Amino acid sequence: MSDQRILVTYLTQAKDLHKKAAAIAVGMTVGSWTDLPAAKQAELAPYLGEAVSATPLETLENGETRGLITVSYPTRNFTHDIPSLLTGIFGKLSMDGKIKLVDITFPESFLQAFPGPKFGIDGLRGRLDAQNRPLLMSIFKSCLGLPFEDLKTQFRAQALGGVDLVKDDEIFFADDRAPFLERIRAFKEIAQETEAQTGKPVLYAANLTGPINELNEKAKRAVEAGADCLLFNVLAFGFDALHRLAADPDVNIPIMAHPALAGAYYPSPDYGIATPLLLGTLMRIAGADLVLFPSPYGNVALDKTEALQLATNLTTPLEGVRRSFPVPSAGIHPGLVPQLYADFGLDQIVNAGGGIHGHPGGATAGAKAFVDAIAAVTAGHTLGEAANQSPELAAALEKWGGAR
Amino acid sequence: MSDQRILVTYLTQAKDLHKKAAAIAVGMTVGSWTDLPAAKQAELAPYLGEAVSATPLETLENGETRGLITVSYPTRNFTHDIPSLLTGIFGKLSMDGKIKLVDITFPESFLQAFPGPKFGIDGLRGRLDAQNRPLLMSIFKSCLGLPFEDLKTQFRAQALGGVDLVKDDEIFFADDRAPFLERIRAFKEIAQETEAQTGKPVLYAANLTGPINELNEKAKRAVEAGADCLLFNVLAFGFDALHRLAADPDVNIPIMAHPALAGAYYPSPDYGIATPLLLGTLMRIAGADLVLFPSPYGNVALDKTEALQLATNLTTPLEGVRRSFPVPSAGIHPGLVPQLYADFGLDQIVNAGGGIHGHPGGATAGAKAFVDAIAAVTAGHTLGEAANQSPELAAALEKWGGAR
């Protein structure tokens, strides 16, 4: 095996950042170094981490320096899965004072062992025959406790408005009133009816839940029942569960990663895992075709630089790994479409819940307002121009405001 | 189904804490409430969360109050697993500003659906025939990259010193030089040899790794190979993987939970999941027989109140759920045993790496020093008294210090 290495960048603080990087390089690999006899050093050298760089950012009041450090790890230290990777580069280190895991760069040989998205941006565009525009997704207003008929009504209303995808609420686990496989079959029928009316296909993302050692079987039963897409709470189940679903040739439908619980990791400046890595790079290599993440708009928004870097990590060329669709979510209404387009470009999914269901004309009109906003912005028109032709868009702009 | 409820406590800040609790109670369950028609309210009421209490702790400079809020959720909102639970009480909420998940109280009916530890404190004491003392565990100095023979030598040295358990290094995934099942068989043989010499059994905890949908099968193969115990990186693989191992009747050996990655969740005062819940309650109900966590001693220690609460959560009576062994780890040397005993009592495992391998007389003498320290403290003697009879303990106290 050639000596290929994984580069890991941490944000931390220390009296001497380079010394800290060197200590991590030893402590997270062979455990000790300078006290080893020469023969043992020769034997363990192929497993030894290495301090690569230290970049000071600021001097703190206590005299320590806060900054970025990069450590390289031999790929041979890991099995080809995210539990091995995260345990090996951040397991006990995460408990060792102020340190945040911010970035990982992989050699191609290591990446090839991961499934990556089965469909990715291009595959999903192909399935929907929707090339040169952002896609549009709608979320059920709520799912928990609702009678099946209410969900069918909600699904139909959203589909008739022309959305590309409809997703379950991510908290929808206890679904005895509208069971998983029955939902998939029922919404498939409705989607065929609405497509006959509108000419537009709509994909339904059903929330995959259950015992972790039965998920692949359950996903296959979903495929057999005609499922279009799976919603999956990746952080609640663990990255390896996504990996094994994406690697399963029989689970041949796109997987949509929900960011539930991500806020337990990313918001602190001192601890955790940065969003561009957590919801970007790791979700992509583990196989998410679409990744939801907090939008940089609204009250409790994700930092914009982080959100843009996250989207870049999902879409930038990466040897042999397909691109994942960024889905900036929360606080999205039709008036925000020009801003979304300016920030995230063509390859994104516009995702709305309240911005569709809260439309004065109902969910179908709410979806239509988004469809018209996306068409306008993609064609280089203003929302004001489009609203002249679209009473639904005009009503949305009246309610929520936004660049005309 | 009776209306049993799960009580969830968060640490957060708001202008009005009770209003925030009420908003969470709706937002994390049925989504909206006041705008629903009366018939819909009647239908969804059984799924509605409720604000239970708000306890102010301090007034912040921005005029907001920081404090604890408790929200109750109907058990019917969840399937009986931790992904459903965490997604339902903290999924999107974790991304909604400053909020930390600090405690959960379960009704008995919900607890019964979780496996809990198969052996727990009493079961493990029975297997080791070690009743009225803390147990002693030793960690390999390092595992990664070492030839099998080196690991055998390390195992034998630790076992001869009289430890109750020896565990793998948690980063030991890439084990081609000493494969999992071969290690289990080889160390079993050595354990039988050392038991013949010392009269004391020693259990080996092998690091369970691999694809998540194959873990139960791999664990069964380990049991067939004679495994005594499994080490498991619960947070890297997800709580549900532990749950399914613990619930599997064929995996009839204790499971030791490693806290790797826990520091990505708990250290921030504003975000994440508090350790007593993360490494205490959740590990226990999911089925960990032993739980490692950062000790409250040393440089980068866990806050002592948190560490003690964590141990309490592992050992306090809980309807139908066995007690898990607390294993406060890092920075442990024989001189700390009186402190450990005063803090964590009889039902703990004293766990040392450097404090055993770094002994001037080597690992066997290092383990012997701990054995003698534990025997002394349990019998009500001082370490100074015991050191008169134990040159190994005397040497350890000389090197590391500690209460004589």
TrEMBL record, chains A, B:
Keywords of the record, alphabetical order, are: Amino-acid biosynthesis, Isomerase, Magnesium, Metal-binding, Methionine biosynthesis
What are this entry's molecular-function GO terms? 2,3-diketo-5-methylthiopentyl-1-phosphate enolase activity; magnesium ion binding; ribulose-bisphosphate carboxylase activity
Biological processes annotated in GO:
carbon fixation; L-methionine salvage from methylthioadenosine
Cleaved signal peptide residues = none
Ranges for domain Ribulose bisphosphate carboxylase large subunit C-terminal come to: 120-400
> Which parts of the sequence belong to the Ribulose bisphosphate carboxylase large subunit ferrodoxin-like N-terminal domain?
6-110
Q: Which InterPro entries match?
A: Diketo-Methiopentyl-P_enolase (IPR017717), RuBisCO (IPR033966), RuBisCO_lsu_C (IPR000685), RuBisCO_lsu_C_sf (IPR036376), RuBisCO_lsu_fd_N (IPR017443), RuBisCO_lsu_N_sf (IPR036422)
Tell me if Magnesium is a UniProt keyword of this record.
yes
Asked if Magnesium is a keyword of the record, the answer is yes
What Pfam families does this protein's entry cite? RuBisCO_large (PF00016), RuBisCO_large_N (PF02788)
Against NCBIfam families, the record matches this protein to: PRK09549.1 (NF007095)
Protein family membership: Belongs to the RuBisCO large chain family.
* Classification via PANTHER family: RIBULOSE BISPHOSPHATE CARBOXYLASE (PTHR42704), RIBULOSE BISPHOSPHATE CARBOXYLASE LARGE CHAIN (PTHR42704:SF17)
Q: Mind telling me what this protein is named?
A: 2,3-diketo-5-methylthiopentyl-1-phosphate enolase
The organism encoding this protein is: Brevibacillus parabrevis
